[in-house]
Each structure stands twice: as C-alpha cells, then as structure tokens.
Amino acid sequence: MAFVTRQFMRSMSSSSTASASAKKIIVKHVTVIGGGLMGAGIAQVAAATGHTVVLVDQTEDILAKSKKGIEESLRKVAKKKFAENPKAGGEFVEKTLSSIATSTDAASVVHSTDLVVEAIVENLKVKNELFKRLDKFAAERIIGESHGPGADPPPPPTLERSSVSSSVIHTIFASNTSSLQITSIANATTRQDRFAGLHFFNPVPLMKLVEVIKTPMTSQKTFESLVDFSKALGKHPVACKDTPGFIVNRLLVPYLMEAIRLYERGDASKEDIDTAMKLGAGYPMGPFELLDYVGLDTTKFIVDGWHEIDVKNPLHQPSPFLNKLVAENKFGKKTGEGFYKYK
C-alpha cells in the first residue's frame, strides 16, 4: 500500500510540475518600444533567434535610422559568423530583417504580442504613462490556443473569459530601465504579476548578460518565462530583486563615483587611475574611459536618483566635478568631450 501511495504521489507531483510548466509563456512575438541603441539591439537579437518583432518609436525617420543600424550590425555579425560562407551570411541578414516590422502606434500592435519590452527615456512619469496606456490594449489569450505567425489576433477580453483566471494568460510587460524601480513602473498597470525588469547591456548583440528583475508582485510563472526568453536569445540571465541598480550598476556606479572623488581630491590623475585599474585589476576600460562611454549625464541621473532615496549614504553623494561637466553639456563620447576629448 505504501508503494502504491508513493507512486500515486510521484504521479501527482509529476503531473503538477508538467501543468505548471505548460502554463509558462513561450515568447514568440515581441514588441520593443524605443528604437534607440538599446531597443534596436534587443529587436536585433530577438529577430536573429527566431522571434517575430515589432519595433516601435515616435516617427518613421527614427525607425528608418534604427533599421539601418540593425542591418549594419547584422552584417558585422554575419561577416564573423559566416566567414567561410558569405551567401549564408547574406541569407541570415535578410531573414532577420524580414522578422522585424516597425510601427509608430504602440497601442495598435500590442494586442497580439507575447512580450512588450520598453527601452525608452529614463523618466518614471513617461514610462508610467506608456504602460498605463498599453495595459488597456495588450492581449489576453486562452492557454493552448494558436498564436503562431499568421494566426488571427485574439478577440477582445470579455467578462466571462476574464473570470477564469486559471486559464487566461496576459501579455508580459518588461522594462529595460537601469536605474528606476521596477515596482514603481509596474504599479501604473493592472498586471503587476505580469511585470518584471529585463535589463540588457550595451551593446546588446555582444553583451551576454541579462538581469531579470522580480518585484514582490511578479509571479513565478512570469519570472521563469522571462528567464527562458533570455536563454532563447543566447543570453545568460541572472536573477535579482527590485533593489536600486540591481546587481551590476549597484556595484559599478559607486566604483565610478569613487574614482571621480579620488580625482577631485587630487590623489591621482585620471590617466593614472585608468591605467591602474586596467593593469592592476584587469579591467578592459578605466573608470573615466567607462564614464565617457556610458555618458556622464546618465551616471549623474542614476546617482541623483539614488541620493534622493538614501540621502545619508556616502556612496550616493553627488560629485561637484561631474555636475559641472554635465552642466557644460560634456557628456562623454556622444558629445565629443567628457573627462577626455574625442574631437
């Protein structure tokens, strides 16, 4: 009898596991909001790994520039990946580009997508307004119904369908923010359980890491679906709670700020600090080179935000010299001057 009971329990456990796995969302259709470097990079890697992508931005001109950048990036990838077979490389580029559609109307395309990834300006109000609007249009699907390429979009949600919560899957929302609290963005929607952070790193096609951020409201099913999606992109996902800066920036930004303070005090030149960290710690870039690459305005934005949250934390104290450079519009490489000159 005990043997039969154990077998029954194992069967029930296996069935339960299979059922839970079946409820995970297999992401096939991705909508990327924002055609900048990050958004275009996310769209590229998603399309290159067999996903159907819609890239959204405010104007056709921005989208045309984004697609041109994606094509140039793909050709570099193809040249290296298909070095001995240029024809296959060309086919790879064309196939990937054909999987990316563009739109200037986010609300009109999210009704039939599995995942929305936002990669727009680092402004909480703007992000909240975007997600609040998209929340009204994003799809509901019944588990098991067909939603492959060419399938009809799901019908609008009804009270009857919505009442069966165990059989309805909502489109997942994710933000690529590097500094804002995911919970604060998720609260603008009615799908906090289907909201998480997906923090990619620049340049997206080359950087393997993706931070998957789980808020207290994010369901385990949503989290696992995003981990699986990240792996499908060929990335290495790491998990983190919704803490300021997540993992990388939480450690990296204070390091960069300490380098600036070292320079401000006159303890060492920026050139010697960069050389010391490259040769002594094995870093590919020194802190000032990295600051110019990331953008001094971006770094200041992150530090200012953290300082507001935790005023007494010495790691989050603003830098007068950084503030001065930003006030002079010296943001780094993108403006031709930051800690170093690039003109």
Automatic annotation (TrEMBL):
An example Gene Ontology biological process: fatty acid beta-oxidation
Residues bound to NAD(+): G34, G35, G36, L37, M38, G39, D57, E122, K127, S178, N202, K334
Protein EC: 1.1.1.35
Protein's cellular compartments: Mitochondrion matrix
Site-annotated residues for Important for catalytic activity: H199
CC per GO annotation: mitochondrial matrix; nucleoplasm
InterPro entries from the UniProt entry: 3-OHacyl-CoA_DH (IPR022694), 3-OHacyl-CoA_DH_CS (IPR006180), 3-OHacyl-CoA_DH_NAD-bd (IPR006176), 3HC_DH_C (IPR006108), 6-PGluconate_DH-like_C_sf (IPR008927), 6PGD_dom2 (IPR013328), Mito_3-hydroxyacyl-CoA_DH (IPR052242), NAD(P)-bd_dom_sf (IPR036291)
SUPFAM superfamilies in alphabetical order: 6-phosphogluconate dehydrogenase C-terminal domain-like, NAD(P)-binding Rossmann-fold domains
Domain 3-hydroxyacyl-CoA dehydrogenase C-terminal, chain residue ranges per copy: 245-342
Keywords, alphabetical: Fatty acid metabolism, Lipid metabolism, Mitochondrion, NAD, Oxidoreductase
A molecular-function term among this protein's GO annotations: NAD+ binding
Source organism, top-level taxon: Eukaryota
Catalytic activity from the UniProt record: a (3S)-3-hydroxyacyl-CoA + NAD(+) = a 3-oxoacyl-CoA + NADH + H(+)
Family recorded in the similarity comment: Belongs to the 3-hydroxyacyl-CoA dehydrogenase family.
Name of the protein in its database record: 3-hydroxyacyl-CoA dehydrogenase
